[in-house]
Amino acid sequence: MPEIDDIDHRVLRLLREDGRRTFSDMAGTIGLSVAAVKRRVDRLKELGVITGFSVQIDYAKLGWGIEAFTELRYAGTTPVSEIVRTATDVAEVQAVFTIAGDPDALIHVRVRDLGHLQQVIDHLRRAGNVTGTKTLMVLGSWTRDALTPRPPRIAGMK
Length: 158
Fold this sequence. Notes:
The protein is an alpha+beta fold. The protein has helices at residues 6-17, 23-30, 34-46, 80-88, 114-126; strands at residues 66-74, 93-98, 105-111, 130-137. Helix 2 (23-30) packs across helix 3.
């Protein structure tokens, strides 16, 4: 495990908040020189702690406002590579999690509407050795690494 100190953690926190933040901005916030911040970011990349930079998208504004997770169950002899291949060939699939126990996989999907979700689920059910599915609709979400955390709001609760 690489040596990561408090300053490295501060750099990572700043980059999670804004992956386009400049070295100069981070240097001023942390109290280091620009060159020192760059060296730390380069080191974190070399160590594989920073694996890339990405953009966060509001998919609802693009017409893909429905999110769901689908549990997939497979015949007991199905190799994990086939489980992953079943879902990665579907454009609406955002992530595939193979898991121990029941179910065998958890698939994160984004779709335009409920009819579209039904088409995706039907497609997954017909794929390979799938023996069963269960779909859970997302009502709200929050992730630790999200630029703007959005915990679900419930009417009347603070």
